[in-house]
Amino acid sequence: MKPPEITQQQAMRYARQILLPGFDLDKQEQLLGSRVLQIGVGGLGCACAQYLVTAGVGGLTLVDDDTVELTNLQRQVLHGESDIGSTKCASALASLRSLNSECRIDTIDKRLDAQELEKILVQFDLIVDCTDNLVTRNAINGACIMAGKPLVSGAAIRMEGQVICFHPSDNAPCYQCLSTLFAEQDLSCVEAGVMSPVVGVIGAMQALEAIKILTQYGESLISRLLLFDAMTSRWQEFVVPKNPQCEACCEKEG
C-alpha cells in the first residue's frame, strides 16, 4: 500500500526528523503509513509508546490486561495518580492522544492467546514486545515467526536492560534462540526490583529500533543483542547465533 502523502502541517510537526540526512519526507511518509502492535503498557511500554506516537507512527495498537497500581507510578510514565484502578490501556490511550491526536491508537485490554496473536499479527508491520515474563515473550516470538513479522524485544530488571530485534528468515535467530542461549530467568520487577530510568532507556531504544526497521533507516539491531549495565553506564553488544535445534524457528522451517 502506498504511504499517505504528508501534509504541510505534518511536515512542520516532524521537521526535525525530516531534516536528518537520508530520512527526509519519504521516510516520514513511510512512518505515517505504518501500523505497530505493542504488547505491554508497563514501564517499557509507556516509554516506547510515547516516542512511537510523537515520532509519527500512523497506527498503534496497545495490548495489556492489567490495571494501574500505586507501585506502577515509579516507572510507568503514561499513568498518573488519578489513573489508579483504571486499565493500563485506557490510561495510556488518554495520555498518548494528548501527545498526538493524529495517530490512530487502538487498545486490547485482555491477554491474547497464541491463536489470537497469530490471527491479529497479519494487520501490522511490526511487533514490539514490552512484556515482563518469559512465557509471554516466547508466545509472541512464535506468532511473529508464523506471521513473518519483525519483532523488537526489550527487557529491564534491577539495574540491567537489553534490547534486540528479530526478523524471520532462514538463517536468522529468534527470541527463543536467545532465551535458551542465556538461560534467562523468569524474574519480574515485583521479585527483583528495577530502577525507574532503566526501563525508560530500554523502552526508548525499542521505539528507535522500531522506527529504523519501519523506515529502513540506519542499521537495526537485527540478531544483535545490546546489554545495558546501569551501574557502570556501559553497553555491550553480542551477535546472537541461530540455534539449529530451536523448537520455535527451526520447527517452522522443517
Query: What average pLDDT do the residues reach?
Result: 93
Main sheet properties:
8 strands, mixed
What is the chain-wise order of helices and strands?
HHHEHEHEHEHEEHHHEEH
Strand order of the largest sheet: 3-2-1-4-5-6-7-8
Query: How many strands?
Result: 8
CATH class call? Alpha Beta
**Structural domain count:** 1
* C-alpha Rg (nearest Å): 18 Å
Number of helical regions: 11
Describe the overall structure.
By secondary structure, this protein is an alpha/beta fold. The protein has a single domain, classed as Rossmann fold, CATH 3.40.50. 40% of the residues lie in helices and 18% in strands. The chain contains eleven helices and eight strands. It has helices at 8-13, 15-18, 24-32, 43-55, 88-99, 114-120, 134-147, 175-181, 189-192, 196-215, 249-253; strands spanning 35-39, 59-63, 104-108, 126-129, 151-157, 160-166, 224-229, 234-239. The chain has an eight-stranded mixed β-sheet, sandwiched between helices. The chain is globular. The mean pLDDT is 93.
